C-alpha cells in the first residue's frame, strides 16, 4: 500500500497534472510536494538573486513560494492538505536524494522552459532511471 508520495513540481502544466494524478490515485496517502530551486550561481538567471542573497535558504523559499502556493490550492480543490518542501541544487539529484523516504514518486513528463530542459536535461527521465522507489510519469 502506498502511504507516502513525493510529487516534484515546477510552474509547468505537466507538474500540475502530476499533482492532480497523485491526489486522485492516492487520496489517503501523505503527499509531499517538492520544488527544487537551481543551485545558486551568478550564471543561472533566476538563481542569481538567490546567489546574492544574505540568507540563501530564505531566498530559495521565497523563490518557490508561488509554485508551492499553487500546489496547495490544487490540493485544496480535492480537500487534501499536502506537505511542501524546497530543495536547492540540481533538480533530478535532489528529487532522487529524497525519493527513498517515500513509497513512490509521481512526476510530470516534462516541464520548465526549453532553456531549462536543454541546460538541466530531462529531469523526469533521470528520476525514472535512478529512483530507489517506483516512479509514475504523468503526461
Automatic annotation (TrEMBL):
Residues 1-139 form the UspA domain. It comes from Halogranum amylolyticum. The lineage of its organism: Archaea, Methanobacteriati, Methanobacteriota, Stenosarchaea group, Halobacteria. PANTHER family: STRESS RESPONSE PROTEIN NHAX, UNIVERSAL STRESS PROTEIN. Belongs to the universal stress protein A family. InterPro entries: Rossmann-like_a/b/a_fold, Universal_stress_UspA, UspA. This is Nucleotide-binding universal stress protein, UspA family. Transmembrane segments: none annotated. It holds the Pfam family Usp.
Amino acid at each position: 500500500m502506498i502511504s507516502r508520495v513525493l510529487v516534484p513540481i515546477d510552474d509547468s502544466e505537466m507538474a500540475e497534472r502530476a499533482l492532480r494524478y497523485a491526489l486522485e490515485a492516492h487520496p489517503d496517502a501523505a503527499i509531499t510536494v517538492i520544488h527544487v530551486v537551481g543551485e545558486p550561481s551568478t550564471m543561472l538567471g533566476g538563481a542569481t538573486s538567490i546567489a546574492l542573497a544574505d540568507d540563501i535558504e530564505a531566498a530559495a523559499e521565497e523563490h518557490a513560494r508561488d509554485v508551492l502556493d499553487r500546489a496547495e490550492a490544487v490540493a485544496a480543490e480535492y480537500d487534501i492538505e499536502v506537505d511542501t518542501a524546497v530543495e536547492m541544487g540540481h533538480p533530478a539529484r535532489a528529487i532522487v536524494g529524497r525519493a527513498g523516504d517515500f513509497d513512490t514518486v509521481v512526476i510530470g513528463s516534462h516541464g520548465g522552459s526549453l532553456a531549462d530542459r536543454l541546460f538541466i536535461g530531462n529531469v523526469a527521465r533521470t528520476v525514472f532511471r535512478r529512483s530507489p522507489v517506483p516512479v509514475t510519469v504523468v503526461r
